[in-house]
Here is the input.
Amino acid sequence: MNFASAWNRLRETGVRHGWISPNAKIPKLKTIGIKSVTRPAFSRAEIDHILAAMPEWTGQGRLALEKITRPLLRDYVEMLFYTGMRHGTEALGIRWQHVGWHTDKGVKNLRIWVDGKTGGCWLIAKHAAADALRRLHARQSDIAGMDFEQLLTSNCSQLVFRTSDLHQPARIDGMFKRLLKDTGLLRDANGLVRTLYSLRHTYATLELLENSTDIHTLARQMGNSVLMIERHYSKLTATMAAGQLA
Here is the structure.
């Protein structure tokens, strides 16, 4: 779509300046792409296997870089799975000042501000995400001396996802691929290679199937439109409705 739009602008500019005739036969670019394929996800059993394997796996790194990157990857994977946030700019851009508690009707929930592909929004993390954040906090020497509860109200501008040497790796997907290879889960049943984005797809899938989260709530949580949720997860929403209709 971007190329087609740019090509049309180029043609319009040429006509406006008199470089080409308005009647010139200029080929058009097609905007119909290849039919999308559902991204591979993890089943509940597979994601439980990864979560259970990671504590031991993080301590098996032999190189110095592995020893500091594997623990970060564990926390990163858990946060993606427990929130549904987008891997990359959205997740890696989170700072401690974007994390805090939100109390509603006497229940305290972890709330995170993310700013990415579709703009900024608050999302609610699963309660287990707090453990990953506590591990991240404990490894970061510049803030480790601060009480965790104090940190979440301190307006700290440091990045959340940093290694123990206080740096954020340029790439972390390669290490995730290694984790999937070591756990035998790199490919799904159809042979598709899983990526960090598969965690977001898994989050949405399990929210719909296990928690019966309505698509409007899920769309707000994930920063998507309801239409997009329906388009990508229509089979799952039909399965949810079956329980109500049968």
